[in-house]
Amino acid sequence: MLLARLILVVQILVFAGFGLAYWFRPYEMANLSGMLLMETTSVSNVRVYYGGLQIGLALFLLWALRGRELMRAALMMLLLVQSALALARIGSLWLDDGTLQNFDISSLAYKVATALLAGVALVQLARYQEPVADTALIGDLDDEVSEPLRRGGIREGLVERIDEAAPLPPERP
To answer: TM spans, by residue (predicted)?
Structure first.
């Protein structure tokens, strides 16, 4: 679970950092990849898509740190998004006769590494079992040591004690 949290925190920082950079410095960020923003509409589109989308993804990942099931969803989203972007970059390599800038090569390596790490963390998270505490359901206040509860299991006698504590109402004719 630590690996999953670490990957998500790093991704939050990366998405938020790039999102804010594209939001506040669209010209400079576009120039890194060789784009030239000529119209105010193109500047707005870079801010919205590259800035706003990445900030939104960072907020989703931050929200997903709250629980294990949310982290699973966030890791799956990260795996799918980064894999799709890596495949798109490889496809553009093929379409554009194999010419990539340094920015594109490092971006491709980062996306592949992130997708692989998210996949590893997803598998590791699926194997992780949270410990289930032995909690008394109906006032077990004796000094007797009981076996810990297991998911899906019920201790012997528990059902009978529940019936005694809360009997069913009599049947109506």
So the answer is: 7-27, 47-65, 77-95, 107-126
Distant-in-sequence, close-in-space partners of 54: CB < 8 Å, separation ≥ 6? 15, 16, 18, 19, 22
In a domain, 11, yes or no: yes
Q: How many domains does the chain have?
A: 1
H runs (alpha helix) in 66-101: 68-95
- 155 occurs within a structural domain: no
165 within a domain of the structure (yes/no): no
By residue range, what is the domain housing residue 28? 2-127
Distances (CA, A) of 173 to 73, 167, 168, 170: 51, 18, 15, 10
State pLDDT tens for residues 77-134. 999 999 999 999 888 888 877 776 777 788 899 999 999 999 999 999 888 766 555 5
User: pTM of this prediction?
Assistant: 0.68
